[in-house]
Write a structure and sequence with these properties.
The complex is a heterodimer of chains A (about 425) and B (about 260). Chain A has about 425 residues and is an alpha+beta fold. Chain A contains 15 helices and 14 strands. Chain A has helices at about 45-50, 55-60, 70-85, 90-120, 125-130, 135-155, 175-180, 180-200, 240-245, 270-280, 285-290, 305-325, 375-390, 400-410, 415-420; strands at about 5-10, 20-25, 30-40, 165, 170, 215, 230, 235, 245-250, 260, 340-350, 355-360, 365-375, 425-430. In chain A, the strands form 5 sheets. In chain A, strands 1, 2, 3 and 14 form a 4-stranded mixed sheet that branches. In chain A, strands 6-7-8 form a 3-stranded antiparallel sheet, with helices on one face. In chain A, strands 11-12-13 form a 3-stranded antiparallel sheet. In chain B, strand 3, helix 3 (about 65-75) and strand 4 (about 80-85) form a beta-alpha-beta unit. The termini of chain B are far apart. Classes of the chains: A alpha+beta (about 425), B alpha/beta (about 260). The interface between A and B is large, with 62 and 61 residues.
Chain lengths: ~425, ~260
């Protein structure tokens, strides 16, 4: 049987953030080996954060990921405020949510339109797609720009915003600055709803998985900034209890640690998990769009995650407009936060899923120890399990088709590899191909 | 006679991808950029991965592994013009903080199985390894400056990017000096302009993310910081961030770290 093997290998996965690879070895219809490798080099954030001041964490950890810096800033400020026993007032919390929804709009639009849609429409990239579908690409660029504008008005700039601090903001924007975004947000709600309709019309493989969906849940909102950590299997814990229920392990083929539930192993974070656990908190237009697309909370076809991501763009635009309409300028822009010797935990919903930070501080506010668990390390086990399950029953496909579909299956997660190495490339090896 | 559309390759080493994202963030100019230049290698955006040679290579990230050190040699050999973008590529990035540490200890802090990890003891800028034709600074780079650099490449002229300090931009913006007026420590006097003096406009001190300006007077900055009650240890911390390994910041931080 030894000449019945074949290998498919993608050395550098495209249209994902960072450097990853996939290696698949088949022996007839059996998957002999499958590795989703993160070869992006490690950058050792947890190590060099030791000895830095607690106030530096939002600026430093933002640099872990250029696509979701706000997520890092928000989990960091949550953790530092938790350590200090500080709670920020509502106007600051609302402004943080607005900044964060800006990041969701920018990041989701980039992924849905420019990185994932080309898979479904059969293009190497959005650049070639622009020739045949100019309206799609033009709308995508305009939506993305809106997300970036929100981040610029609130955060100072779209990549590595400079206006976030522990306790609040350096300077709160004027109401008039935010009002200038309203008309564009109204256009965006309609356009994003049309996007849901567009992507819901794509062809999806008949494929579902059994996932434990883990996300934040907030009592009255679609959770983004804070809440309890819940799962579709009944987990319901405070963020400070993360370490009691989750652990990180290391595999030889990846520079990213894998996170797992101590009791049940692999789990799934991201838009599908948020939708499963917070589907009752959709905003009105997002609800109508989800219903029309036939989407139900608990959707477990990972290829349909693009529809959920599109629904979240609608939601983000509606939430952003609501926050602007109700805006009360925080005064002062930040509350004084005095550090103390303590351990602080913080979590928030990055565009790609739950992002957990833990810091141990000494009495002068210097960081003694740090743990950062990004969404992609939590999803690595689910990604590999999806790929294994997907290959079974599809081994008759030729290498090129199989490779395209497996890459697409990885992109379902919008993996962020820089995040995971703070961690893609495909190799399929077939044993015994005649 | 029509000239052939020049080819562009975008490369990533150890980094957060924020600087290459800046190219995708040029929403208003994106379609005109892809009309003027043929993107033949840019894994974050496209499956098309053409072999060289390339007319222009834009390189993001720092060199942190032996494999990267070899790869940058091949990229240089296949590129007519090579431009580095961002603090990682031009100064080693924040991950260059490991240059002052024992990398084995760093690995053991982050990873339970240090034996699986392959990493050099250093994070170094691209120019330490190959000839670089132009360096664009910033963490992240400015979109306006990136377009200026691509435009200058297309028109075969020198990019107009200032090497003076952030203070000049504050004066041009008529922003009140946060250090003089509020006693807020600010890296602006020794930091390269390019961001538009963003932080002082948001009522905070500059934190040096564009790296050292031309001939920065860090000793004088130290006197000023002393006068507002900032100790050398905090000046050393401020110098050791995203451009920690840029020579001027590196030497000063070694001197003041105490």
């Amino acid at each position: 049987m030894s000449d019945d093997t074949r290998e498919i290998s993608v050395d550098y996965l495209a249209r994902v953030e960072g450097e990853g690879a996939l290696f698949l070895k088949l022996n007839g219809d059996e998957v002999e080996d499958l590795r989703f490798t993160i070869f992006e080099p490690p950058r050792f954030y947890e190590a060099f954060l030791r000895g830095r001041r607690f106030s530096e964490a939002p600026d430093i950890t933002a640099r872990i990921c250029g696509i979701c810096p706000v997520a890092y800033q928000m989990s960091a400020v949550n953790a530092m405020e938790n350590a200090a026993g500080a709670v920020v007032l509502d106007p600051i919390r609302e402004l943080r949510r607005l900044l964060y929804f800006g990041e969701w709009i920018e990041s989701h639009t980039l992924h849905v339109y420019m990185l994932h849609t080309p898979d479904f429409l059969g293009y190497p990239s959005a650049i070639e797609m622009a020739g045949d579908f100019p309206d799609i690409v033009t709308n995508a660029l305009r939506l993305k720009k809106l997300g970036n504008r929100i981040m610029t008005v609130v955060g100072g700039r779209e990549i590595n915003p400079i206006n976030v601090k522990v306790g609040g903001f350096y300077r709160a924007p004027l109401g008039t600055d935010l009002d200038a975004l309203k008309d564009e947000l109204r256009w965006a709600i309609d356009t994003a709803a049309e996007t849901v309709e567009l992507v819901a019309g794509f062809e999806f493989p008949d494929f579902t998985m059994d996932y434990e969906f883990v996300s934040l849940r907030h009592s009255d909102e679609y959770a983004i900034l804070d809440g309890r950590i819940v799962s579709s299997e009944g987990l319901d814990i405070d963020v400070t209890e993360w370490g009691d229920h989750f652990e990180e392990t290391q595999v030889e083929w990846s520079n990213a640690l894998h996170a797992r539930l101590k009791e049940r192993g692999r789990y799934h974070v991201g838009p599908m998990a948020r939708f499963a656990n917070n589907g009752d908190h959709l905003t009105p237009v997002a609800q109508v769009a989800a219903d029309a697309a036939g989407l139900r909370p608990g959707e477990s076809n990972p290829f349909r995650s693009i529809i959920v991501r599109a629904v979240e763009i609608v939601l983000a635009c509606e939430e952003a407009l609501g926050i602007i309409e109700r805006y009360v300028r925080p005064d002062p822009a930040a509350e004084a936060v005095e550090p103390r010797s303590a351990v602080g935990h913080g979590a928030s919903e990055a565009p790609r899923g739950l992002l957990y930070h833990r810091y141990e501080l000494d009495s002068s506010g210097f960081i003694a120890d740090t743990q950062i668990v990004p969404p992609t390390s939590q999803n690595q086990a689910s990604i590999e399990e999806d790929l294994r399950a997907y290959v079974r029953g599809r081994t008759h496909l030729d290498d090129e088709t199989l490779q395209w579909q497996l890459e697409q299956a990885i992109r379902n997660y919008d993996p962020c590899i820089s995040c995971a190495t703070h961690f893609l490339d495909l190799t399929v090896e077939r044993a015994g191909r005649q | 006679m029509t000239a052939k559309t020049p080819t562009l390759a975008v490369w990533k080493f150890a980094s957060c991808s924020g600087c290459q994202l800046t190219l995708l963030n040029c929403e208003d100019d994106f379609l005109s950029i892809v009309g003027a230049i043929d993107i033949v290698y840019f894994p974050e955006a496209t499956k098309t991965m053409a072999d060289g040679p390339y007319d222009l290579s834009i390189v993001e990230g720092s060199i942190t592994t032996a494999h990267e050190a070899e790869q940058i040699q091949r990229i240089r050999a296949s590129s007519t013009t090579l431009i580095t973008v961002g603090a990682c590529a031009t100064a080693g990035g924040i991950q260059a903080l490991k240059n002052w540490a024992d990398v084995d200890e760093f690995i053991s802090i982050v990873y339970p199985h240090p034996e699986f990890i392959n990493s050099l003891g250093t994070s170094t800028p691209i120019a330490d390894h190959v000839k670089v034709d132009f360096e664009l600074h910033g963490c992240p780079i400015s979109q306006r400056q990136l377009i200026e650099v691509i435009d200058s490449f297309l028109h075969r002229r020198k990019p107009n990017t200032p090497s003076y300090s952030v203070c000049v931009e504050c004066k041009l913006n008529e922003t009140t000096c946060v250090m003089i007026a509020n006693g807020t420590p600010c890296m602006g006097p020794v930091t390269r302009a390019g961001c538009g003096a963003l932080c002082p406009a948001f009522n905070r001190g500059c934190y040096g993310c564009f790296g050292p300006s031309e001939t920065p007077n860090i000793a004088s900055l130290r006197d000023l910081w002393h006068s507002i009650g900032v100790a050398d240890a905090d000046l050393a911390l401020a110098l050791r961030t995203f451009n920690a390994y840029a020579p001027e910041f590196r030497e000063a931080s070694d001197h003041y770290v105490g």
